[in-house]
Specification:
Layout: H1 19-35, H2 38-63, H3 71-77, H4 81-121, H5 126-140, H6 146-167
Organism: Elsinoe australis
Family: Belongs to the Tim17/Tim22/Tim23 family.
Pfam family, one: Tim17
Length: 180
C-alpha cells in the first residue's frame, strides 16, 4: 500500500531504489504539486504577463514617432541629438513599464480567478474561463462606472469563450476552424 507523498512501504515497487533516488522522487512530487497550485499558476502568469507586456510596450513605443509637423515633434527636433535619443528612450521605458503593469495585472486577475473557479467547481470546463473572463472584465473596468463594467465583463467573457473554443478543438480541421 502506498500513500500520497509517501515513499512507499518496504518491499514495494521502490524497494530496489537508493536513498538518493528516493529523495529525487520525493522532490519531483513536491515540485509537481507546487506547480499545480493556484498560487504558483497565478504568480507565474502575472510574471509572464508582465514580461510580455513590457516587450509589447517597448515594440509599440518604438513604432510611434513624432514628426516635425506635430507640436511635440517640433520641440523634440530643436533639441540636440543626444537629448532626442535620451527623451526617446525615456518614453520607450515609460510605455514599456505601463504595458508591462497592465498585461501583468490582467494575467494575474484572470488566472487567479479562473483557477479559483476551477477549484470551487472541481472540474476543468469551458464555463470556468467564460466566468473568469466576465469577472476579470468587470474588475478591470470598475473605476469607469457600471456601464463600462458591463461592457468590459461581456467583452472579456466573449474573448474567454472564443479562445477556449479555439484551444479545445480536437484536431485541426479547416472546416471547424472559427477563424478562417
Amino acid at each position: 500500500m502506498s500513500f500520497p507523498m509517501g515513499g512507499g512501504l518496504a518491499g514495494g515497487a521502490q524497494a530496489g531504489l537508493s536513498t538518493e533516488e528516493l529523495q529525487q522522487i520525493k522532490v519531483q512530487k513536491y515540485i509537481a504539486a507546487a506547480s499545480e497550485s493556484c498560487a504558483f499558476k497565478t504568480a507565474m502568469s502575472g510574471v509572464m504577463g508582465f514580461g510580455l507586456g513590457g516587450a509589447f510596450g517597448l515594440f509599440m513605443s518604438s513604432m510611434r514617432y513624432d514628426t516635425p509637423m506635430t507640436p511635440q515633434g517640433a520641440e523634440i527636433s530643436k533639441l540636440p541629438v543626444r537629448d532626442q535619443i535620451r527623451q526617446g528612450f525615456r518614453e520607450m521605458g515609460k510605455q514599456s513599464w505601463s504595458s508591462a503593469r497592465n498585461f501583468g495585472k490582467v494575467a494575474l486577475f484572470y488566472t487567479g480567478i479562473e483557477c479559483g473557479i476551477e477549484g470551487l467547481r472541481g472540474k476543468n470546463a469551458m464555463e470556468n474561463n467564460v466566468i473568469a473572463g466576465f469577472i476579470t472584465g468587470g474588475i478591470l473596468a470598475r473605476n469607469a462606472g457600471p456601464q463600462a463594467m458591463a461592457v468590459g465583463a461581456a467583452g472579456f467573457g466573449v474573448f474567454g469563450y472564443a479562445i477556449e473554443t479555439y484551444l479545445r478543438m480536437d484536431s485541426y480541421d479547416a472546416s471547424k476552424d472559427p477563424i478562417t
